[in-house]
Write a structure and sequence with these properties.
Number of domains: 1
Order of helices and strands: HEEHEHEEEEHEEEEEEEE
Distance between the termini: 41 Å
Shape: globular
Length: about 260
């Protein structure tokens, strides 16, 4: 059947409809909320400059298709900066994440600062090295967390179980943009010559102080962005913690 050229008015109308559909989709509001069941928050501290880290990252990647992902288990992959001195600067590393890991140790919640390093619900965990199962959260997190994404803006509301207790605490809202299926060719350092794959890796991060108003703790943040990264999939993770203590009080996550 020969191709029939579209008339100009029809073509313009069709283009306008496509643009309208994309604009409507972009403007659609998305809400991500915490679940009622206890959720395990698994933190991996790693670096592209560490030769012991690729096996840990390969292990955490297996949870990408887990049926309990985002409801019972929320993994997050923080890249730290203290391996950069070997001659390879990790593009995903942040001094903020290095400080987060050191703060856990300073508070006595982990024994060492090392990679690969694991935290489960704010407590150091060495079980991966011994092929042990991840500890399950035994008690619900404290309150409900709800994040509303509209264009590039995020509104986080946290309805704490004990609002009076929360009122006396300085709370911080966090949001991390996670990338999946990212590959990097390493040219220097301990992993020189290898191509590393990353899932659950933080490629964008924002945090903000929370304010209490009318029995609700809330914060406004910008949607994290990542430059020069082409992940296959992305997800958003939200959590609330006390100022000075990285331990999550409540978490929520979902695919973006």
């Amino acid at each position: 059947m020969p191709f029939k050229a579209l008339s100009r008015p029809f073509f313009i109308s069709l283009v306008g409809l496509i643009i309208f559909c994309f604009q409507s989709q972009a403007a659609e509001q998305v809400t991500i909320s915490s679940t009622a069941n206890p959720t395990t928050f698994l933190e991996l501290y790693t670096s592209q400059g560490c030769s012991s880290c690729p096996p840990a990252e390969k292990w955490i990647s297996k949870f990408t298709d887990d049926e309990k992902l985002w409801t019972d288990l929320i993994p997050i992959n923080f890249h730290v900066t203290y391996w950069d001195y070997l001659g390879w600067k990790d593009p995903f590393a942040s001094a903020v994440f290095s400080k987060r890991q050191r703060t856990y140790k300073a508070l006595g919640k982990s024994r060492i600062v090392a990679t690969p390093g694991f935290m489960v619900n704010g407590s150091g965990w060495q079980g991966w090295f011994y092929k042990q199962a991840i500890p399950k959260a035994s008690t619900p997190h404290l309150g409900n967390l709800r994040a509303t994404i509209n264009n590039n803006k995020i509104k986080i509301n946290y309805n704490a179980t004990d609002i009076k207790s929360s009122a006396n605490q300085n709370l911080i809202a966090h949001v991390a943009l996670l990338g999946f299926g990212i590959e990097t060719q390493i040219h220097n350092g301990e992993n020189a010559g290898h191509k590393l794959k990353h899932d659950f890796v933080v490629i964008g991060y924002e945090q903000s102080d929370m304010q209490i108003k009318q029995q609700l703790t809330s914060a406004n943040l910008a949607l994290p962005s990542a430059n020069n990264v082409m992940p296959i999939k992305q997800a958003l993770v939200f959590w609330v913690s006390k100022k000075g203590d990285p331990t999550p009080l409540q978490v929520a996550a979902d695919w973006l």
